[in-house]
Amino acid sequence: DRHVNYGSGSGLQDRVAFVQNDPSQYDASIRLADLQVSDTGTYQCRVKKNTVAVHEVIVTVQEKPATPQCWIEGDLTEGSSVLLRCYSR
Asked: I need a labelling partner for 46 at 20 to 30 A (CA). Which of 16, 36, 55, 65 fits?
């Protein structure tokens, strides 16, 4: 039908568009801009001509980790032991 159904309350309206101007020309690919963790979900392509064909794709958006904080604990002299610590939220 040459349109995207965004689902209720998804926040996708301003971030989804067809890659080609006219999806009826056999390419109904979409581009999702500014990915967010909340975009994780099942996306469905539904093509209608004489019959209906449906394909689903599961998309998992992972959050970028924070920059780790790293430090050394212990005596930095030859023969001693040190503990290398690293932590990230």
From this structure: 36
Tens digits of residue pLDDT in 61-82: 998 888 999 999 999 999 999 9
Question: Do the domain assignments include residue 1?
Answer: yes
Residues forming beta bridges with residue 16, ordered by sequence position: 32
Sign of the CA dihedral 49, 47, 13, 16?
negative
Total domain count, the chain: 1
Which portions of the chain are predicted below pLDDT 70?
Answer: 1, 8-10
18/7 Cα distance (integer angstroms): 16
